[in-house]
Amino acid sequence: MAVQDFEVKTIFFYYLFPVIALLLLLRVLKYLKPRLLACGCNAIGKRIHAKCATEKEQLFRHLDRDLPHHKLQILEIGAGSGLNFKFYPEGSEITSLDPNQHHKKYIETNRDKLNPKVHLKQFVCGFAEDMSCFDNESFDVVVETFVLCSVRNTEKVLQEVKRVLKPGGKFFFMDHVAAEHSSSLRWFQNRLNPLWKAAADDCHINREIASTINKIGFSSVEVNQFNLNTFIVLIKPSIYGTSVK
Ligand SMILES: C[S@@+](CC[C@H](N)C(=O)[O-])C[C@H]1O[C@@H](n2cnc3c(N)ncnc32)[C@H](O)[C@@H]1O
Description:
The N and C termini lie far apart (79 Å). This protein has helices spanning 2-51, 53-60, 104-114, 154-164, 184-199, 209-215, and strands spanning 73-77, 93-98, 119-125, 139-145, 165-176, 220-227, 237-244. It has a seven-stranded mixed beta sheet, sandwiched between helices. The protein is built from six helices and seven strands, in the order ααββαββαβααββ. The chain has a single domain (48-244), classed as 3-Layer(aba) Sandwich (Rossmann fold). The protein binds S-adenosylmethionine (SAM). S-adenosylmethionine binds at residues 41, 45, 77-80, 83, 98-100, 103, 127-129, 145-147, 150-152.
């Protein structure tokens, strides 16, 4: 009997308990991950936005030029915590799309703080690769900042952006990108990309985003290069610009 007890205890402590503990840990991590990412995106996003404040001002300064001035329909993909709200013209109607639903509360808070004169029309939980929830030609403006580095399929996202834009509509973008081909920084970006991706929620540091935007068939594309003001050299090379459908 005592030997059987000993065997049951051994099986429990050495085999069952570690498996149960591991399964519980995985469940806790699955629960915490999107919440922590949303919280981190809000905190880190504020610092990143401060580091490219000048370029953001440049990018959005003529947001409503050549576009209707009344209730501009804006779609922001990968909206994160909604830090771009402050650049949207009064009266605009914003649709925020992000696969992480926990961003919604930060978006609402930041809208109230940064620009209460714009209207958050809807928050859609989804991926920009498939925006079938939106009709063709339904937005005057589409915006993305620091999202194309993380999406699964950049080309598909950009095709969807073009589809949902009205004719003459504008796409505003800002991203960190791959360094020049032959540079030593590019060599490091290529080598460290797998590690970076694993640590930074699938963010790629070596994407050639400008050339992909150029391939999509917008009627015009304007790209400006700049260095992000950060000590993290790997994400310094950056671009911002606009494309017109
Ligand atoms: C680095 S954050 C940038 C957030 C915000 N745009 C900003 O500039 O502060 C990247 C955002 O893209 C979102 N994202 C990741 N993959 C996406 C996808 N396939 N479609 C749309 N958004 C995505 C993430 O959930 C996250 O909110």
